[in-house]
């Protein structure tokens, strides 16, 4: 797709894909009509003036008509039917369609929402009950039930014996536990059951913060033994969207409802919400100590950091002290400068001390963190930029974030409504007749569904999707799977297939439904065509047609002239004595080779010889002696302390350059000539007739 720059260049002259025959015709080109709406839409797009006038419309009509001639010629040559063209256009279409296959209003709202949330930072802890998005309903139900019982327990509503028994049944029927129990391994079963069964015990033996103390005993998050579920401060776009939403919608001190993300079910407790402190650029000097440091080790570190602090107060440079004494070797060479950071990225004590510094250049007192002692210097703090400045960045981040699915889901809901979406569950479920355990071993074939008759499963307007299409999709999704309920699997795959078919249907309608997309795609289509056509007729032809190039050169060789030139030999001598010897030998008509051999017999450094063709004006020494013969005086080259003896061998008056000497310029002019001849051919083949009355109505 390397032709994009050319495609965009030619896009300035493009038009919509279709036109209504009832519209006025602004011009005909080779007998083919061009409608006013086509011309006017492109003129408006490319008219840089705030108002239009008759002259600018007329000038653009000339450009537009020439462009249309080239497009018609490319089509007449069948360039639009070439597979390489189709492949390239299809690649661009995939890129161009992506923004149209989501709900714009939803995405705009998400950008604004993210910005408003970024004004604040939330401090929260969580409990995670793992459950992948692809889990079957029975496994999802087990995870959700466990999460709900744990949340209720934290809130003081402990599970009853009946609830525990009900959960036990769900747990034993879940895919992974059932498989483990069949292998006589009850470890996973006991761990999950105890997280619910022992809630009463956990609740009674914990302190005031039930959440923080129950989290390590119930959460599936592997980091929970270290942080007890504490996530520190974070802001918008730091967490997956549903988690972030729950955090911002929960008041400090409260526990959220159970929240579903792609990782599973979460329970959050929000501890604080503060204004965003911005992004800090700081430097530090660190004296570290190990996790298992003795009291004496820590005392030694404190003494050392205090000594460094004293040196700073005495006027020594922070950066030099960082290079000399800091134990953070990743930053010490940079004078201690850290990568810019936001709240929640570094230990709380470090961040609090850094953000407490009120001005650039301010330096903190020694600060202790779990990693050692630090002295911090503030370099800069960058606050939140205005929304209009951040919008491009936020748009890109939203598109990469899980919240982008909100726009897709809104699109799917809208398309279903607009297309009169209908589904036939009975015909869908008929696939269970031909779906067997070979699917779980990834050996099932979609052709097994052929016997069902390809009955329709979903319809959107006049478009029908049947059993065979669903079966092919199912085959494309095959991977090796553990034994499971095939109906659950079918329903899971069906939901995904429906979403893809709805988006695919909308994609197929873009040219019809969306004028902006239609015009944009046409720009790329015609841009690629014009590149290929111009390459054939002008650019590559000028390079490949060597006979034509030479003929053009012979006709125009006087356009490619050398100026007056001097063929010069320069003898570069180490001293005046060597220069004198050279002059004697030149006076005896000795040749260059003979002179070199004689002079350099004692040292190869005595003499060097250069032969150069100088244009008049290139070298002052030559210009001052513009005649054949030996220049009468030696010339001192102060740059390398050499003495130059110059011989002008020949003065050559203006003369044509050889083709190989002027190939670049000749080729460029040959291309211009080819294009000129080609345009004359096009204008003869595609005569233009403009309806002046219609053209005057273009605004």
Topology overview:
Blueprint (H helix, E strand, L loop, with lengths): L3 H7 L14 E5 L2 E4 H11 L7 H23 L6 H15 L6 H15 L1 E11 L6 H18 L6 H13 L1 H8 L4 H11 L1 H7 L4 H9 L5 H4 L2 E5 L6 H9 L9 E3 L2 E12 L3 E10 L6 H19 L4 H8 L3 H4 L15 H9 L10 E3 L2 E11 L4 H14 L3 H15 L3 E2 L1 H5 L26 E5 L2 E4 H10 L9 H28 L1 H30 L1 H11 L4 E2 L2 E9 L2 H12 L4 H8 L7 E9 L4 H4 L5 E2 L4 E3 L4 E11 L2 E2 L6 H23 L2 E3 L1 H4 L4
Antiparallel strand pairs: 1-2, 1-20, 3-4, 3-6, 5-6, 7-9, 8-9, 10-11, 11-12, 13-19, 14-15, 14-18, 16-18, 17-18
Helix pairs in contact: 1-23, 3-23, 4-23, 5-18, 5-19, 6-7, 7-9, 19-22, 22-23, 23-28
- Percentage of residues in strands: 15-25%
Mean pLDDT: 90
Report the sheet with the most strands, covering strand number, pairing sense and barrel closure.
5 strands, antiparallel
Number of strands: 20
């Amino acid at each position: 797709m390397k032709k994009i720059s050319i495609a965009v260049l030619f896009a300035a002259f493009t038009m919509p894909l279709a036109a209504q025959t009832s519209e006025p015709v602004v011009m005909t080109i080779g007998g083919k009509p061009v409608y006013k709406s086509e011309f006017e839409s492109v003129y408006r797009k490319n008219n840089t003036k705030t108002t239009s006038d008759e002259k600018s419309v007329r000038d653009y009509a000339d450009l537009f008509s020439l462009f249309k001639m080239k497009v018609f010629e490319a089509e007449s040559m069948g360039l639009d039917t070439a597979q390489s063209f189709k492949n390239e256009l299809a690649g661009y279409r995939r890129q161009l369609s992506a923004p149209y296959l989501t709900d714009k209003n939803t995405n705009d709202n998400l950008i604004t929402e993210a910005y408003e949330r970024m004004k604040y930072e939330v401090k929260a802890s969580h409990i995670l009950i793992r459950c992948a998005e692809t889990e079957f309903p029975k496994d999802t139900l087990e995870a959700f039930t466990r999460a709900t019982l744990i949340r209720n327990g934290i809130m003081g509503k402990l599970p009853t014996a009946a609830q525990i028994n009900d959960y036990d049944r769900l747990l034993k029927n879940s895919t992974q536990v059932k498989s483990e129990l069949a292998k006589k391994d009850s470890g996973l079963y006991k761990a999950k059951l105890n997280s619910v069964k022992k809630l009463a015990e956990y609740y009674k033996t914990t302190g005031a913060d039930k959440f923080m103390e129950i989290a390590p005993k119930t959460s599936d998050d592997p980091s929970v033994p270290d942080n007890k579920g504490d996530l520190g401060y974070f802001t918008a776009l730091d967490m997956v969207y549903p988690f972030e939403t729950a955090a911002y919608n929960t008041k400090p001190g409260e526990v959220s409802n159970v929240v579903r993300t792609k990782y599973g079910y979460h329970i959050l407790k929000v501890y604080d919400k503060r204004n965003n402190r911005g992004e800090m650029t700081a430097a530090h000097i660190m004296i570290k100590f190990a996790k298992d440091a003795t009291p004496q080790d820590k005392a030694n570190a404190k003494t050392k950091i205090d000594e460094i602090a004293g040196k700073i107060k005495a006027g020594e440079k922070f950066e030099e002290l960082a290079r000399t004494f800091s134990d953070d070797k990743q930053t010490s060479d940079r004078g201690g400068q850290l990568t810019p950071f936001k709240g929640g990225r570094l230990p709380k004590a470090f961040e609090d001390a850094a953000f407490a510094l009120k001005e650039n250049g301010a330096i903190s007192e020694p600060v202790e963190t779990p990693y050692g002692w630090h002295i911090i210097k503030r370099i800069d703090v960058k606050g939140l930029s205005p929304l209009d400045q951040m919008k491009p960045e936020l748009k890109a981040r939203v598109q990469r974030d899980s919240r982008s699915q909100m726009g897709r889901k809104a699109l799917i809901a809208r398309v279903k409504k607009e297309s009169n979406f209908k589904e036939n569950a009975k015909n869908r479920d008929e696939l269970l007749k031909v779906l067997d355990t070979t699917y779980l071993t990834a050996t099932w074939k979609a052709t097994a569904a052929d016997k069902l008759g390809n009955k329709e499963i979903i319809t959107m307007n006049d478009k029908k999707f049947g059993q065979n299409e669903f079966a092919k999709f199912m085959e494309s999704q095959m991977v090796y799977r553990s034994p499971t309920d095939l109906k659950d699997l079918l329903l899971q795959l069906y939901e995904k297939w429906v979403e893809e078919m709805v988006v695919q249907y909308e994609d197929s309608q873009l040219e019809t439904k969306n004028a902006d997309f239609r015009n944009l795609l046409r720009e790329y289509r015609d841009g690629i065509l014009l590149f290929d056509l111009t390459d054939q007729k002008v650019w590559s032809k000028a390079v490949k047609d060597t006979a034509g190039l030479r003929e053009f050169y012979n006709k125009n060789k006087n356009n490619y002239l050398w100026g007056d030139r001097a063929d010069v030999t320069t003898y570069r001598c180490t001293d005046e004595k060597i220069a004198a010897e050279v002059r004697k030998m030149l006076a005896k008509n000795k040749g260059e080779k003979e002179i070199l051999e004689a002079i350099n017999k004692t040292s190869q450094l005595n003499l060097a010889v250069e032969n150069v063709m100088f244009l008049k004006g290139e070298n002052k020494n030559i210009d001052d002696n513009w005649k054949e013969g030996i220049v009468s005086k030696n010339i001192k080259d102060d740059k390398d302390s050499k003495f130059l003896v110059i011989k002008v061998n020949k003065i050559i008056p203006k003369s044509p350059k050889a083709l190989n000497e002027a190939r670049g310029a000749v080729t460029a002019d040959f291309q211009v000539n080819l294009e000129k001849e080609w345009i004359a051919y096009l204008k003869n083949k595609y005569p233009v007739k403009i309806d002046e009355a219609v053209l005057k109505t273009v605004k």
